[in-house]
Amino acid sequence: MFRWVIQKPIEFDSLNKIELEARVKQLENLKESNDMSDFLLEIGLEEIPARMIAGAEAELGKRVHDLLTRERLLVEGAKLTTYSTPRRLAVLVEGVLASQADIEEKLTGPSWMVAFADGTPTLVAEAFAKKAGVTVAQLEKVTTAKGEYAGATVKRTGRTAEEILVAELPKEVMAIYWAKNMYWRAGKPERFVRPVRWVVALLDAAIVPLEIAGIKAGNTSRGHRILRGEAPVKIGEASAYREILRNAHVVADVAERRHKLRQALDKATRVVPGARWREDEGLVETVTHLSEWPTAILGDFEAEYLGLPEEVLVTVMRDHQKYFAIESVDGKLGPHFLAVLNTETDEESAAIIRHGNARVLRARFKDAQFFWDTDQKKLLVDRVESLKQVTFQKELGSYYWKTERNLAVAKALTTAVEKAGMPFDKAALLKAVELAKTDLTTELVKEFTELQGVIGGLYARAQGLGETVATAIYEQYTPASIEDAIPSTVEGQLLGIADRIQTIVAMFSIGMAPTGSKDPFALRRAANSIVKILAESALPFTIADLLDWAAASQNQRKDLEVFFSERVEYYLKDVRGIAYDVVNAVKASGLRGVRDAIAWAEALNEARNSQDFISVSAAFKRMKNIVRQAQTQGVKIDATQSFTEVLVEGEGVRLWGITQLVFAQSKSLIEQKKFKESLQIISTLRPWIDSFFDKPIVVMHEDPALRAARLGLVNEVLTSFSTIADFSEIVPG
Prior knowledge:
This protein has 733 residues and is an alpha+beta fold. Helices cover 49% and strands 15% of the residues. It has a six-stranded mixed beta sheet with strand order 1-3-4-2-10-11. A four-stranded antiparallel beta sheet has the order 16-18-19-17, with helices on both faces. β8 and β9 (147-156) form a beta hairpin. α9 (310-321) packs across α10 (347-375). It is flat. The two termini are 24 Å apart. The model is unreliable at 1-15 (pLDDT under 50).
């Protein structure tokens, strides 16, 4: 068993005492006999962009794990821990064998008759023996179902861990994916996120003489650039890596560094009575990956800036300066900030840094205040015409065109909502759609693009357009991710859907559909948001309705349905946690309303382990295989239902009659959204299906008419119920 840990060591709390003692004893015995070592790899780099570090750390760990597993170098109970800072990626593996075990391999070569014509070895036998590394006399006859072949038993001596690591590990490291790479050695082919400056590779205390990007591995690392300087830090033993770096003012473990950062923020905040720092997980992660030895200082700004919206103040602090906001216990923003330092300072130095940070922040706030005041001189309603000058997409048109198309979709949505009797403010919705993109022409959004939509909502509120309009505009881009909440109002939900579906259909119309990992217009994210809103709101329409209202052409329709089907599948699996086979069963029946698909999948998930349902699912799988086999063999299947006239055996006639009755009842229950009851009805088919297959009835009968009739029966039952769900996909839990 292999234990792989990212960022923090394995916790053994779940193991009982006997298991833990046995595992520790095993590792100790192996180490004492010099059969096992700890392996450390550290790649020292110039500062890596913070957003790329976590993914690269995880990939390095996986690549090292896969290499050692593939080469049979891991002992039972091995443990792998990864580390990272802005200047390094590292992995420590406890439990690496000194060498591979020798193996014996049996090779099969050419036909025996070809290798030994009349008992005499031919050139073919000699070539096979040479390739296998044995003599012709050592070749042996191997008998298989396909005939007799020449074979050889080959013993392969295991390679040492050092030999394998030297040969293979550099290739794995240089294959790590980076969003952006660079060349840094003239005339050399390697590319990496940043130049490699040092490499540490150790098996216990012994240096592994590998080379990465022209840098030979050693046992010297680097400590904190300021607190330690560039003096080498010797890693005497692989297992001591974490402690040695900590003594050099580097917290290599990400979880430990995150904890140190939070402690520093807490300590600095306690200076302000009754205050707390505003929790921001994303900023915590960013700053954690920007530092090796994080500390925090508290700064202040003039209370007059609190007149600006909190969204503006927090965005300036978080996105532009990487500062944390300070708030009171009731959540009200205070005139303070927390700056994170990647060093330690005395009071005199801290005062200078605090003053400098406050000065930069003050300048940012002044700019924001100026833009806010300037923008208020022109109402949002007067900015609509200016959208003609803002390009949405060069092949489609401007944001004015986009707004007109959004309005057309929104009007279709309102008709459906009105028919359903849902309460909402139609006039407010249409006004929100008309003004939703106007903040793109404001100075504040030009400066702080991440506040698009939010600024429009704030301006709508400040200009007296009403809370319904303001909230809809403010929330138009939510949910930004699958974890976010959907818009809080029906108007916001409709605006968000109209905007996204129009964008998706328009982009598909000009050939801009996502391909592979490429999705420059974030259409998958937009579709995920639509699915989430439909799933978690009471809106009364389906994705098929949306495609109609967004004027999707018939040529695009199939591609769009497949695209949204994948997004619904993603939502069911990754958000609702529905098993893959149940999702496949639901998906095979066609695109339904998202909430219906969820309810149907959850009902299937619950029913899948009942014995009756397991038996019925197995029978449908058998039917599917029979039909597939017949189609492969080109056998005729009666698709006209005239097969009932040919069937003479009672089981076939009874099965046909009962399936028609059950199908009609289950279909009716599904239309009433009584999904559990529908599955209960379907489960009653078990005795009839069992009776049909338990009797000595051969579906693929030699009589063509009878064979076609029985195949017609099986195919009709299968086809009918596949419009409900593909039950053959269900795997018993």
